[in-house]
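Quick one: sequence plus NAP SMILES, need structure tokens.
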Amino acid sequence: MSGPARVGLLGCGNVGSALARLIDEHADVIAARAGVGIEIARVAVRDVKKSRDVRVPPDRFTGDPLDLVRDPDIDVIVEMMGGVDPARELITEALKSGKSVVTANKELIARHGPDLFATAAASGVDLLFEASVAGGIPLMRPLRESLAGDRIRRVMGIVNGTTNFILTRMSDDHMSFEDALADAQRLGYAEPDPSADVQGDDAAAKAAIIATIAFGARVNVDDVYREGITSVSRDDIESAAILGYAVKLLAVAEELEGGISVRVHPAMIPVHHPLASVRDAFNAVFIEGEAVGELMLYGRGAGGGPTASALSGDLIDAVKNRVSGAKGATIGELVERPIRAIDDSESQFYLLMEVADRPGVLGAIANEFGEHSVSIKSMEQRGMGEDARLVFVTHRARESALRATLEALRGVETVHRVGSVLRVLGDED
Ligand SMILES: NC(=O)c1ccc[n+]([C@@H]2O[C@H](COP(=O)([O-])OP(=O)(O)OC[C@H]3O[C@@H](n4cnc5c(N)ncnc54)[C@H](OP(=O)(O)O)[C@@H]3O)[C@@H](O)[C@H]2O)c1
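Reply:
Sure thing.
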């Protein structure tokens, strides 16, 4: 490569304009680290007339992303448009024509990552996607490179800042879910339609990518079991706090006997666990490796600046590799590993029940737990009167056993209501 590396940007919105500014403002440092300067040669957007806070000459903007991708003068593509289509076709075209690609697109990688990795490998170019999971937090590179020789047992992450912000407000300010969500929307942390965040879909896409990279397995976003935070109540959070737990939305990828488990759900974690201290819109990923033990990566999981930071690291890598004629670390052969159903996963459980306040009730309840081999770790009674509220925390049990216990408890005459049930992680496991 002679002269600066010519980069084509697909998208110049929140993230794309932050990257354009970063390339401009950190030009010297980037050139020193990449081995050559980086020039934004062309930018594809939907509306070429829109004014943008970037120092890129207007004549470099185009409304035709395919033309940009096919431009033989472009060396590297950075995709920041989002969505599966047309990003998938554009990236495939770029890779096949020998261009390295950097992307922030979690949806695309979580659905079509393995095919795109194979296309990149066949063309001998890089496809890098650090920014697609947890924004500015370096996670893909540590998993792919720094921990490549270790055996990862489990990754647990707070990978959605919107839901973490909402849960923090519910916990610290005793807000209802609805009020905390409205606050998040007012401050720009939640979209007007928050469903992808609060129902766990955004975290599920990230969980699929994490599992793919951590276990070298093909994991599609549709394989990921998910529950969002819409049914978490202020009561649950206060009850958890009394017991010494915080409620977080976790993306979990772990090895289970005979396969892997990949899931997203709210969980109670002990307040002394490092993930419990992750507040507001911050993200963190807690990794457990056979040799390395436990480690945690923490930072901003979204926002133009943090995401542009991750993209710029990938971009420098891609350019450096082109300068030296090398290719970065590959994902390697992805294997098929059975994705175990949620019923096969194990955790402790928290259960809240309303029961008749009379003798013999506890015996009947304990009997159902025992019948299904779910062992009770602790029990507290809250409130007196006609109905008593009982709060149980179990020892580690299989999800299927807990479901069978719940079914049986609903048939016990003195159990008037089985209220909240939450998984408890990071305590006994
Ligand atoms: N925002 C974050 O904090 C964050 C964090 C991590 C990852 N990401 C990922 O980064 C990507 C971009 O996010 P963003 O927040 O920057 O989105 P955004 O603000 O909506 O920007 C999208 C950009 O892509 C352009 N675009 C969309 N469809 C196009 C098409 N068919 N042809 C040409 N241009 C097209 C848009 O053009 P116009 O400007 O003309 O509309 C816009 O410039 C997404 O994959 C997202 O998941 C975002």
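Residues 26 and 312 are 10 Å apart (CA to CA). The chain has three domains: 5-136+304-324, 140-300, 345-424.
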